[in-house]
Amino acid sequence: MAGTYKQRDFRAGIEDQSLINELTTRKIVVREPVRLSPGWESTDKPDDELNFRSVTMDQVDLELNPPKDKLNVVFIIMVLHGIGTLMPWNMFITARNYFENYKFSSNYTVINTTYASKYVNSVSFSAQVPNVIFNWINLFMPLGGDLTTRIVWGILVQVLVFVETVVLAMLDTSTWPGVFFWITMFSVVVLNTFNGIYQNSVYGMAAKLPGKYTGAVVLGANISGTFTAVIDLLALKMAPSLRTAAIYYFLTALFVLLACFDTYFALPINRFYRYHEMIFQKDKQKKELETKSKIHGRTPYWTIFKQASPQLFNIFFVFFVTLSLFPAVQSNIKASDENFIVSEKYYMSVMCFVTFNVTAMIGSLLASHVQWPKKEWLVIPVVLRVLFIPLFLLCNYQPVAFTRTMPVLITNDWIYFVIAVVMGVSSGYLSSLGMMYCPSTVDSRYASTAGMFGAAFLITGIFTGVLTAIVMPYIVSMRVWE
User: Fold this and answer.
1) pLDDT confidence bin for 224, thresholds 50/70/90
2) 456-474 pLDDT, tens per residue?
3) What stretch of H or E contains 119?
4) Spatial separation of the C-alpha atoms in residues 340 and 211, rounded to whole Å
5) Cβ atoms 319, 430 nearer than 8 A
6) What angle do CA 31, 35, 38 make, to 5 degrees?
7) How many CA atoms lie within 13 Å of 406's alpha carbon, on the beta-carbon side?
8) What residues form the membrane-spanning segments (predicted)?
9) In a 3-state reduction of DSSP, which class is residue 105?
10) Burial class, 309, CB count within 10 angstroms (exposed 0-12 / middle 13-18 / buried 19+)
11) What three-state secondary structure class fits 143?
12) Residues in Cβ contact with 83 at an 8 Å cutoff, skipping those fewer than 6 apart
């Protein structure tokens, strides 16, 4: 068989031979080194990163394929944490009937006390003072390490305080009302101390994400008020006693905080959150390498404050005006018409708590879709909101233990309702815009610090508003009006 093959059988065909000749005669010219597209080497990245050292495949995949927030999971988690930031305050204020008309009432205690009349002012002071102090301390001297440590411990301590509050609700405290009062105030102090750290850290976390996610936290804070207002209405209608209603309040807060705890640990699993965390850290490192700052890694707080100050003022002033009126003034506005659609029993709950919280929630939700006016003009509607203070005082505001001498000029309940709606919507909308704009006014590596500044000015606005509300009964009771 070997001798039967001829040489021509092994020759290439005409087409094959022409292809071979073309390949052997063609010159391959490489004019420049091969580059990764798009311009990887021109991005001035560190050599370790260009050589893919210290870069995981997950990071490469995230950068090449930026993920989206599927099903708005991260947005919903931020809303939930927003609910958690105001849940302690809302629950203790909503449960005022439980404390004033049950635990400190003369029908329950064996002795007459003045704790019922002191409750609102005492709990407001006990809540806001530590909240303000630890918000500012946490900004300049982060307590407990990184964000994770601060958020986790902030939530856990609040959970323990609510467990203790539920236990106290179940106990018979009729023979020791004084001890119960001071235990309650101490619990409020501890609760809001750790809530201040938690709240400040949550805004710092949200500032690393696109602007609407900071708005989501504000939206959640307003939903928190709506949530507790609805629970209050249901309790008035369905709960067999104030004690049972209060236990429902505190258990609800407990479950919300546990949900915040669980969802925080779910964030690193989410690709969208990991991507923005990675971008934030890389941008921060890159800017530090480029500037080679002489401050040796110290955060330039004064520079951040100056750059963000217009939005910080907006945030402060929105909450200052709002808390000057809600709930202290608004909850004491009485019906002018006995035949109004809302009966006297539900007037305060509906016209104050439900109206404000629902409309503020709508305003925050609107800010996630519409951002107007732009950041440089936001101050105009913010400052104009100061007009709500005289408008509310001209309504049928009847402060407890004071004799009003100022004439009531707004005697139509529907006009008051419209004013209340505009106040609530503007509060939610403008505060959300201020918090959303704030991180974008500084260098991206300082966005988290700017977000924490915003949270500190938010709670400072609340605190000063609460203090100003104390003056309102004296204004409408001045002799000059007689």
Assistant:
1) confident
2) 999 899 899 989 998 999 9
3) helix 115-140
4) 42
5) no
6) 130
7) 21
8) 73-93, 151-170, 176-194, 215-235, 247-267, 312-333, 345-365, 377-394, 414-438, 450-476
9) coil
10) middle
11) coil
12) 220, 221, 223, 224, 227, 256, 260
Closest CA to 408 of 331, 324, 328, 481: 481
Q: How many CB atoms lie within 10 A of CB 405?
A: 13
User: What DSSP designation does 253 have?
Assistant: H
**Residue 109 CA, distance from chain mean position:** 39
Residue 257: per-residue pLDDT: 93
User: Crossing angle, helix 115-140 and helix 447-469, to 10 degrees?
Assistant: 160
Collapsing DSSP to helix, strand or coil, 35 comes out as: coil
Are the C-beta atoms of 348 and 331 separated by less than 8 Å?
yes
AA identity, residue 388: F
Q: In whole angstroms, how far apart are CA 143 and each of 121, 130, 131, 152, 153?
A: 28, 14, 14, 12, 10
d(CA 420, CA 355): 7
Instruction: Name every residue whose Cβ is closer than 8 Å to that of residue 13 and which is 6 or more positions away in sequence.
Output: none
Share of the chain above pLDDT 70, in %: 84
Tokens at 249, concatenated: 């309040």
For residue range 22-62, list pLDDT tens digits in order: 545 554 444 444 444 333 344 444 544 444 455 566 666 66
Tell me which residue of 386, 470, 471 sits closest to 427, measured CA to CA. 386
Distance between CA atoms of residues 427 and 318, nearest Å:
6
Distance CA 365, CA 232 (A): 23
Q: What is the pLDDT of residue 51?
A: 45
8 A C-beta contact, residue 413 and residue 335 = yes
Average pLDDT over every residue of 131-141:
82
pLDDT of residue 143: 61
pLDDT the model gives residue 382: 98
Q: What is the mean pLDDT of residues 163-176?
A: 92
Mean pLDDT of the chain: 83
Is the pLDDT at 263 greater than 50, yes or no? yes
Give the closest residue to 116 by CA, choosing from 180, 175, 191.
Answer: 180
Cα 293 from Cα 96, distance rounded (Å): 52
